[in-house]
Design a protein that fits this description.
Length: 68
């Protein structure tokens, strides 16, 4: 038995499946958006860091450990 479907039917099927997944697993969309935002923030931080003064590794660890 062969099932055939035109492009419009396939498009509608994919849309329906995607909507169902997003309704049932909205956490997937949330996680994807959260990761995208984190990537953008990290990229901005990297760009900003390229134009700032270098700091020694030891100074960073002192700050993280609360030893100023």
């Amino acid at each position: 038995m062969e099932i055939s479907m035109n492009q419009e039917q396939l498009k509608n099927l994919i849309k329906t499946a995607l909507v169902e997944v997003l309704e049932e697993r909205h956490d997937l969309l949330h996680d994807a958006i959260e990761e995208a935002i984190e990537d953008v923030v990290l990229a901005h931080a990297i760009e900003e860091g390229k134009s700032t003064e270098l700091v020694q590794r030891e100074e960073i660890f002192k700050l993280l450990e609360g030893k100023t």
